[in-house]
Every structure is written in C-alpha cells, then in structure tokens.
Amino acid sequence: FFQAEDGIRDTSVTGVQTCALPIWLRDEIRLAAKALAESWEEINLLYSIGEILGRTVNLDDAAGTILTEISETVAADLGAIYVHDAARGLLVPIAARGVAPKDLDAVPIDDTSTVAAQVFREGAPRIFDAGAPPPHEVPVRRGPTLAVPITWATPRGTSGLGVVTLSAPRSEPGFTAGDLKLVAAIASQIGTAIQVTRLVRASVEQERLAHEMQLAHELQMRLLPATGSVAPDATCAARVEPARSVGGDFYHLFRLGGGRVGVLVGDASSHGYQAALIMALTMSAMAIHAQKGGDPVATVAALLETIAGELEGTEMFLALCYAVIDPARGEIRWVNAGQPHCFVLDADGAAHRLAATDPPLGMTAGAPHEASRPWDPGRDTLVLFTDGVPDARDTDGRALGEARVLEVVAARRKDAPERIVDGVFALLEGHMGTIMAADDQAVLVLRT
C-alpha cells in the first residue's frame, strides 16, 4: 500500500490501482504487528527454553541460561530461580541475575517477609509493588517484583517445587499481566524439568543401589562354606535363598578331627543388611571358636560372648542350632537356641526333632545347654531348615507347613543330600507360585 492522503489514484509505473489507508486502520495494523512480534518473541522463548531443558538432565546447569532468557524477554535486570529443599524447608537459589547464586541466601518457606516464600506457600503468581525488600531478597529485588510458583500436578494435587522471581523492570509501568502469564508458562516447563531431574537421579541411585546389593549378595554367598569342605567325613548339601538381596539365614560346616563334624544353621531376626551383618559376624566368630574343641556348649557360649554387644546394639536376636556329630561314638550333641526345624531322619523315614535347649541368642544372658541322642552312621540323615521354609505362603495365604517338608525329605531319604535339598526347594516353588518369599529360606542335609 502507498500511504497517501489523497484517496484512489493511478500508478503509471505499475498500472496497479492503490488506495490510502485511514489513520485508524494504520494504527490498528501497527498494534497488531506489535502484538504479533511480541507473541512471536514469547513463542520463540518458550521453544528455546524447551530445547534447553530437553538437552539437560541437570537443571542446575541450565537454570542460569533460562533465567537470562526470561529476564531479557520481560526486560528485568534482577531475578532468581529457587528450588524447594523439602528436607530442610528452604527455597534454595540455583540461578540468579544481578548477583552470583552463591551470594544469595536460601529462603525459609515459612518466611513471611519475602515474596518468594509467600508465593510458594500460596501457589499462585503475583506482581508485587515496589517496596523495601527484606535482607534475604535485597540482591535480587528492586522496584516492582514478579513472582511465579514452580509446581507439579500429581493425582493428589499440586506439589510446590520452587519459585521464579523477576524484579527491576526496565520500562514503566513495570510488569504486565502478559509477563505474568509468560513466566507462568515457563515455570511449568521448569517444574517438569525438576521432576525429570529428580526421577533421573532416583533412577541412577536405584541402579547404583541394586548393583551394590547384588555385590553384597554375591559376597554373602561366598561366605558360606563349600559343602564339600566336610568330605570325606560327611556328605552334605545346602542352599540359602535370601528374601532380599542379602539376608540373615546361613549355615557353617567344620571338620573337628577324629571323624567328627560340626554343623551350624542360623537365622538372624528380620532380614536385610542388618541381618546380613549379624550373619557375617557369627560366621567369622564360629570359624574361630568351633576349632578350639568342638564341644557345642563351650562353642556357643564363646560365640554369644563375641556377638552379645552387637545383638544388643541392633536389638536383634539369633536363632541357631549347632550340632556335633561323632560317628565313632554313635552320637550327636547339640545346642539349639530357638531353631525349631532341626531333625534326624532314621532309615525308616521317622523324624526325630532336635529339641530346643535355649531361647535365641540375645534374648537372655544365661549360659547355653546341651542335649544328645544316638547317631547311626550311614543310615541317619541330619535335616535342618529355617522357618522361612514352612512359613512360605501360597497365593491364598496358606503356609506350606513343616509336615509337607518332612514328607518330601522322607520320600527322598535314600537319595543323595543334594537331591533332597532340590526336592524341598521344588516343593517351595510349586507352593509359592508367583508369591515372593517373605522371609529368608535355608535348607541343609548331611550324612556321615
């Protein structure tokens, strides 16, 4: 269009008929063009910030760039991005304009004098008039201040993640409703970025923890002795399945000389890493005490003296059965401190329980007691299992029960110990189906 004032005229050069625009229409066009330019600037800003956030998994690295982009668009010389530290109840600055973030104080979320804390608590964006700022905000607040909460929508409602503040506007009268709307849209993107960052960190931490727990599981399994360590005095098979990566069920084996064999099965209360520590300490102590003579009472008494402080400190207890088999004398002697599922199966398949002699270690400070019974070498079978085996539940919540375990053992009593252990765990797997074990499980079978 030719902006002429004299109405319609011919243009000899082009032959195109043109007309002058009324002044009101020209003003409308200028306003529309300005609005379009501003909208384009805002869209471009949102796109740019989306790209920045999309290229990083660490918001701290991108926060400074984001704040600069926002500040330039809304023409603000001061500003900050705060992230909520729930553990400390603080809004922690991760980016600042006009001052280094390290020189900006964290803001308590219950602070009543700062706009950052006020907007965080209210969860709504606001424009504050000029006023004297509190000490916390002096470096990033001068004149009118725009503050927008950073939030994240959850099924339970909106969760506050932080705050964006902008101040010291370069133009009068200051910030506009359009500025507020734009910064709120950007704050929404920042909220998504914060959640992504936290999820990534949590995922990395879970992966690291899973790796460490796997290493701990492998280490714990290596602490268990090879079942062939008692050969040729005995034939043994054993298996331990922790409910978690590590657990508190374990066994130990000792050759004591003269054909005698020492057998230990233990179950630390609870499961997890604390139980695993009790297990490791017990096995280390038993490796020393059992070799001093082989007497069950003396050995368990020495063990209790070693681990009593740890049991008291962790408020845990240890159920165990330590048996010494002497084939030459035809005798098995034992101390049973609260371990209920300990049996000698005779050649006919009858199960004879090794009765408890004492409560679990850590419950009382008294000296342990001993019991004994005959042992028929080549015919008797020692069967020890922890309570995670009979207590295993099926999909209807029914426990497997001790009797069914003993039925499998009796049916396989002429098989090698390894076959008997396999049979018990096959029974467990069939009973539990897809149900995860709630407790550690250990089974040991031995013959002399």
Overall shape: elongated
Structural class by secondary-structure content: alpha+beta
Mean pLDDT value: 84
Radius of gyration: 38 Å
Q: Strand tally, please?
A: 16
Short description:
With 448 residues, this protein is of the alpha+beta class.
Overview of the molecule:
- With 448 residues, the protein is α+β, with helices and mostly antiparallel strands.
- The chain is built from eight helices and 16 strands.
- A hairpin with a 2-residue loop joins strand 8 and strand 9 (260-268).
- The protein is elongated.
Topology summary:
Layout: H1 23-54, H2 59-74, E1 76-85, E2 90-97, E3 107-108, H3 115-122, E4 126-128, E5 145-154, E6 157-169, H4 177-223, E7 235-241, E8 249-257, E9 260-268, H5 273-289, H6 296-314, E10 318-326, E11 331-337, E12 342-345, E13 351-353, E14 371-374, E15 381-385, H7 402-411, H8 417-432, E16 441-447
Antiparallel strand pairs: 1-2, 1-6, 2-3, 4-5, 5-6, 7-16, 8-9, 9-10, 10-11, 11-14, 12-13, 12-15, 15-16
